[in-house]
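Supplementary notes for students who missed Thursday's class. We covered one full example, reproduced here. Read the sequence, then the structure, then the short commentary at the end.
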Amino acid sequence: MNQARGFTLIEMAIVLVIITILIGGLAMPLSAQIQARRVAETRHDMDSIHGALIGFAMSHTFIHPTIVGEIRHFLPCPDTNNDGLEDARNVAGFCNAARGGLPWITLGVKGEDAWGNRYTYAVDPGYSNNTVGFASTPAATLADLDIFPNASCAAPAVMENVPVVVVSHGPQGRGALNMGGGTPIAPASVAADERQNLNVAVGSLPCANTISFVSHTPTDNFDDLVMWLSSNELFNRVCPAGGCP
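Structure (token representation):
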């Protein structure tokens, strides 16, 4: 009669090695799938932010003090104290900063990207002023924010003269603020393109100004997701048919 024979130690070791190889081969694709899902989630949330900014502009209006019948609109100020609310304006109606965090509570959107970090938000001072606002044609209110392909901030630009820029600092989140206001990962010194997109003091930015941002395909030193709202789109949505009611 044949006796049942179990696995030898060598056979078990071979099986374990094969399983380890298979698991290792699946780990990278699974990690890539998770990152792709988070990127897609963040882009979806940024689309919601895009729509919320247009909705804010549509619902926040005032009558121009000197142009009869001119109704103007304005955008929210950045959030510089990490409370999720837009900052108060000064006596002239201007925001106290051109860059800051996204005022997510004011806009009614998610306050963090898929990696748990705050968005950087920048708005042209004229578009956020609640005593000047923007007129019914793009030519009448030219915005100042520009998006470049690298931190040299030299022409040709990816997009020029936009009123709003929103940045997710990507999977690595280098230099981003988290919901508590801390900076979990310092930006790499070589990642100049990412440093240009940070909400930090102007003097520490490679281009040394608040109006320039960088957007290009991901690299080892750049994984930011950048969204902007053009003047034409803003006017077409807020003031259809070329004029506001």
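Commentary. The chain has one domain: 43-242. Residues 49 and 109 are 6 Å apart (CA to CA). If anything here is unclear, bring it to office hours.
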